[in-house]
Amino acid sequence: MGKYRTYMHNQVRELLSNYGQVDMLWLDFSYPGKRGKGKEDWKSEDLIKMVRKLQPGIIVNDRLDLNEYADGGDFLTPEQFKVAQWPTVNGQRVPGKPARPSPVPGATTAMRTPGKTISNCSYSSSNP
After folding, report:
1. I want to staple 118 with a disulfide (CB 3.0 to 4.6 A). Which of 9, 62, 73, 112 is the partner?
2. How far is it, in rounded angstroms, from Cα 106 to Cα 30?
3. Strands 92-93 and 97-98, how do they pair?
4. Rg (CA), the chain
């Protein structure tokens, strides 16, 4: 695990250092629990600190398993379900307005708010 973790951190460092401005980073690897790998396995906190240092304006999804860390992710990426109501965090409605309607009926698109916080919101053909 240690070799892969080092390799992955180095790959992210290379991508964020050698290719100009990067606006968004999607990660998809934390699956905490008995059969998964969580934030300790990936050293997720070290990774997000490096990401923010190398690309201060970047937007990062929430797949680092850092829900309790204030700077652990900028938008929610729920998996295996369609959002049925407005997203909340700690019981509070996530602020935002649709960035633009999805061109595909029933597709999920992102919402953006000041401070680069965005969250998922579903659109259907009946939405304006």
Report:
1. 112
2. 27
3. unpaired
4. 16
Instruction: Give the angle 11-62-24 at the CA atoms, nearest 5°.
Output: 55
Evaluate whether 26 touches 59 at the Cβ level (below 8 Å).
no
Question: Could you read off the pLDDT of 93-120 as tens digits, one per residue?
Answer: 876 654 445 454 544 444 443 344 344 4
| Nearest residue to 88 (alpha-carbon basis) of 121, 49, 128 | 121
d(CA 45, CA 51): 10
**pLDDT per position as a tens digit, 65-103:** 888 888 888 887 876 667 678 878 788 887 665 444 545
Tokens at residue 81, please? Answer: 């379900």
Length of the chain: 128
SS3 content of the chain, % helix, strand, coil (to 5): 25, 20, 55
β-pairing, 59-60 vs 24-25, is parallel
Between CA 91 and CA 60 the distance in angstroms is: 22
In the numeric block, the tokens 């259907």 are attached to: 124
Phi then psi dihedrals of residue 7, to 5 deg? -60, -45
Going by C-alpha positions, the residue among 80, 84, 115, 118 that lies closest to residue 99 is: 118
